[in-house]
Amino acid sequence: MSRELMGGPHSAPLPPAGRGPGPAPYWTVLGALWGLPAAVGAVWWLLSPDENPGGQCEGIGFGCTLTPRDSVLFLGLLASPVLVLAGLLAVGLIALARWRRRVREGRS
User: Fold this and answer.
1) Tens-digit pLDDT profile for residues 69-92
2) How many independent structural domains does the chain possess?
3) Which of 12, 64, 70, 101 is the S-S candidate for 59 at Cβ 3.0 to 4.6 Å?
4) What are 21-51's pLDDT values in tens digits?
5) Does 73 fall in a domain?
């Protein structure tokens, strides 16, 4: 089978046998799912005030609330497991797609 028939007329050309796209798809996905939220969270944390407005008490419970800076950390704590699982799932799906492509091409 020719490469054009395997991927269709509108698909991207396949790399030569033995050479894949390398780690670029993995870095792209992990950068989007792990790096970007970490960078946004770091900037948000740096720009957030360290005190509550109006002298409200700080902390959790008894009518107190977290400071904006602590709230960013708490949000990161809650988002981290979801982002880790999403990143691992995405990397696994990329690996599966690349493996299936190699098998289809007969390069297993």
Assistant:
1) 999 999 999 999 999 999 999 999
2) 1
3) 64
4) 788 899 999 999 999 999 999 999 999 998 8
5) yes
